Amino acid sequence: MKQILLLLGIQIALVISIQAQDARFAQFYNSPMQVNPAMAGVTPSSARVALNYRDLYYSLLGNKPFRTIAVSYDQRFRAVNRDHFAISGSFLRDQAGLPDYYKLQGNVGGSYLKQINGGRYASSEQYLVAGAQFGFAQQTLNWSELTFSAQFDGNGVFFDPNAPTGEPFSGLASNVYLDFNAGILWYAVFDDNKSVYLGGAMHHLNEPSATFTGDESVRVFRRYNINAGGEWPLGEVVSIMPAALFMSQGPMLSTTVGSNFRYTNNKWDELALRLGLWTHFNNRTQKGIGMDAIILSAIFEMEKWNLGFSYDITSSRLSASNYYRGAFEMSLVLLRPEKDKKRLVCPKF
Fold first, then answer.
1. Global pTM value
2. How many domains does the structure of the chain reveal?
3. First CA to last CA across the chain, in angstroms?
């Protein structure tokens, strides 16, 4: 009975938050197009493909966990002087639990990278980047997997799945809606392993209508992102790479903060390893804003690809039910090395 109540609670929470919260990745620094449209082209390579996979609460929900898959591509081109521009495309598929809720979204976009400081005698290379995306999205939901109070008897004990729900559902899919995102990013690079960056983005600028019932007043909340980070050397072969992502969407707040420690062999055919410790906070805990996960990460770097793994250890009261087993995440970033001698200088993410 306790497990049934827990699953029903997860279902109810899901239905409440369907329109409220976008998917997130613990390795947000490896999912650039999901964080900020101005990240397009901000890479030492001329082109980049990012693949992300996240599996949440498999220990509770079995073969219907919270599962998110994303893929993105961005490519940079020379504009005038030391300026650049970039194009991007991304696709996201988000599955959320027992009711077979899916969100499918595709975006295309671009950015412009304006040099604001640099040159032979400058102490740093600095760029200001502006980017935008537009695309289409749709949400689907299997209503037959949901349960409602009208399907229980008068005492609320016995459940009849064939009983009418009493709810005015008009379809299994929402309308297809148009979506707009925009962002800016500033960064400064002082040396090969010394940099800092700060960005902000607004997603769902038009607050599109996404309704299952035909009620046009049901809107996707605008999402505000702030991402920041950098790199600082701790020696010749070791550096620290702190970063943070703050997200606000409707009533939801989400913050991931922490750091990777990077070790490099410091050779022309560079190999590097990052090990990280991160924490995630949100405002859906019993005491308001609180920490709900501790994240361990490892990333392997080569010239043409980065492979990352991370695991969320549940630290909220839910750990009593899932035995601290939260989310597994994997990322793969494929890079096409820049051949231009005047290649763009940018931070590591």
1. 0.85
2. 1
3. 46
